[in-house]
Amino acid sequence: MQRVLFLCTGNSARSQMGEALLRHLGGEEFIVYSAGTKPQSEVNPFALEVLKERGVPTDGLYPKLVGQFVKDEFDLVVTVCDGARQTCPFFPGAKQMEHWSLEDPAAFQGTHDEILFTFRETRDEIERRIRERFLSS
What we know:
This protein is of the alpha/beta class.
């Protein structure tokens, strides 16, 4: 089993989508977490909505502080935002670090449909990267 941590600043959108998608797509081969350097109070509702559109379970998702994982060992820590990469350039319990520079869909301003579209694009990009990185054989 591979242990994977998705890390970003707020742990409300990108890293939560990474956690939920890899857990769903990878099944029992992965133990997956997400955390943030400055976690928000809740998971972004748009992130939850676009995950549910794909049938990805969202039960149990909540923002977590990266500090609770610092002593844990991970096969891979994936930073999904540039801020987290700068804040955590080294993660002591990681065998490997990887960076995916993804725009923050929560920062996008627009109509409800435009914001939803942006979250879908981010979800699809994260899923594409997960399939390439973890599931292609």
